Amino acid sequence: MTAKNPTLDETDETDGTHGTDDSGETAETTEPLRLRRLLDTARTVLLDFDGPVCDLFGGRSTRPAALEIKAMARRKWNTLDPAVEACDDSHGILHPLRDMLDRKRDAGLDPAVLREANDIVTRYEYECAGSAEPAPGIQSLLDSLLGRGKRLAIVTNNAEGPVRRFLELHGMSRKFEAVCGRDPGEPRRMKPDPASVHRALRALSPTSPAHAVMIGDQLTDLRAAVSAGVGFLGYSTEPERARLLRCAGAHGVVASHARLVTACAPPQVSRSRP
């Protein structure tokens, strides 16, 4: 699967990993060019929140939230599906809960359980947002993008409220025109579903997917971008995840926002001596 962005794909088809392209250039020379070209053609930049903007959970497990959700659901639904019982991820558990509700709706399951589960996750996100640290270099990146006239939005599987709380605490609120978070009533619209990407593009209309790029750290981010026809830049400090993002079709992967700040800078024009 390759993330398609017509403007970029017409100009650069190297894979940005190892070796050389047809011109003999190495990945070390082609990937900076790839980053610059993608950012030059983008009018809108969409950022995932947890990862590229901040470390929301700071290494904390979301298992306690998942356990609380399961305890609540057992009280109201009694026996839970094996897929629900097996999940210890706060966000991942929302999907099997929704599947169980749909499959057993005739059994009279209370649909309020799904919304209450979402509320538990949101509360946990609020708790973490107060102590979360900004990603290194994110302020410089946002300023560089804004300085080049880019419009910014956040596209995330987190709830909108905790995201806005974090942005307010760190003076970033006015830098983003939209925050498109998790739909509290429909977890199936979380990434990799492209619904939140489409919402962001509508919020920043008129914006064509061909002139937008997303920065994310997960394969779910990449898949959402691909489905929406948006270019994708990976951000990861983990070599294995960076490799997976490249193999899945990311137009480029960086371990530091400094690389993107450099790509945003106007190219230097060399002048010959008189």
TrEMBL record:
Regions that span the bilayer: none
Keyword Hydrolase set for record: yes
Region (Disordered): 1-32
UniProt xrefs under Pfam families: HAD_2
A cellular component annotation (GO) from this entry: cytosol
GO terms, biological process: DNA repair
This protein's UniProt keywords: Hydrolase
Gene Ontology MF term list: phosphoglycolate phosphatase activity
Entries under Gene3D superfamilies matching the protein: HAD superfamily/HAD-like, Putative phosphatase, domain 2
PANTHER family referenced in this protein's UniProt entry, alphabetically: PHOSPHOGLYCOLATE PHOSPHATASE
Stated name of the protein: HAD family hydrolase
